[in-house]
Amino acid sequence: MSKVEIFKDCKNNLGEGITWSQNNNSLYWLDIPMPSKLYKYSFDSNKHQVYEMPEMITAMAERDKNNLLIASHYGINNFNLESNKFNQILTLEKDKPYNRCNDGAADFLGNFWIGTMQNNIADDGSDIEITKNSGSLYCIDKDLNITNHENNIGISNTFAWSPQNDKFYFSDTLTGKIFVYDYDYNNKKISNKKEFAEFKRGYPDGSTVDSDGFLWNCRWDGSCVVRFNPNGDVDRVVELPVPNVTSCTFGGKDLKTLFITTARMGMTNEQLENTPHAGSLFVLETDIQGKPDFKFAN
To answer: Which domain holds residue 197?
Structure first.
């Protein structure tokens, strides 16, 4: 593999939700704190676009050429890239106004899986202390039916599936552990939760799975991406020149390019001076093919 390089010095406060569109040959990612932004980079035209969002957005899945399904502070939304219209489709957890959505992704059948957590970001972008495990794990199908799968979660992260789609990977970042479940996709049920991996550098954040079934996990406060084999053993560690590594996905025509988001949020002025590229979007050319990101099938 080559070395990690800067793809965009975008100085994201909390870069997240990176998604590759094979149809559009484009990359999407977001910056969560307000003013929350959606980024799109088209490889066909080398055009870079930034869309400012009306509320805090946290995760996404492609719907079609012009529409994205976007999880936000208050629920699930559609965003049209041509009209710039942001419309709410569903609300989540009306009884928990202190919560927000966090990480999420679509599975191969087009169900959108999304996790919630106690909101830890104030309107001015400053940190709010997390005081309770108020998050949950949900699945939203193409008919917009919502199913609750797990509760008492601190920070929902790592939404990824094995190449055979029979395993689901998920992390509660506060535990420091990544878990694996059996996934009965015919009935949209997860079961048999087991500890998959624990790594002693930083905390588990976003992840992706490659075509060999290895999990690539970004490490918050760990300055790296770790590749775990299907047994949960460390295969390799990819070093980054910034502390907070947040989300990754494979893209490019051959799905061998790993794109990695990072964050500046919570860093001191001294830390930012020492790591000036914190918040950049990084890229790593690999010899490994990834799995495509799936669309929300509605």
So the answer is: 5-285
Q: Which amino acid is at 217?
A: N
> For 83-87, what is the mean pLDDT?
97
Query: What's the CATH code of the domain at 159?
Result: 2.120.10.30
Residue 298 lies inside a defined structural domain of this protein? no
State pLDDT tens for residues 178-201.
999 999 999 999 999 999 999 999
Question: What does the block give as tokens for 212?
Answer: 């060999």
Alpha-carbon span 218 to 207, nearest angstrom? 6
- Parallel, antiparallel, or unpaired: how do β-strands 75-80 and 67-72 relate? antiparallel
Domain count, the chain: 1
Which entry of 31, 107, 205, 210 is annotated as an active-site residue?
Answer: 205
| pLDDT, the chain, mean | 96
Residue 113 lies in a domain: yes
- Per residue in 245-267, pLDDT tens? 999 999 999 999 999 999 999 99
238 in a structural domain = yes
* 293 is known as an active-site residue: no
270 close to 292: Cβ distance less than 8 angstroms: no
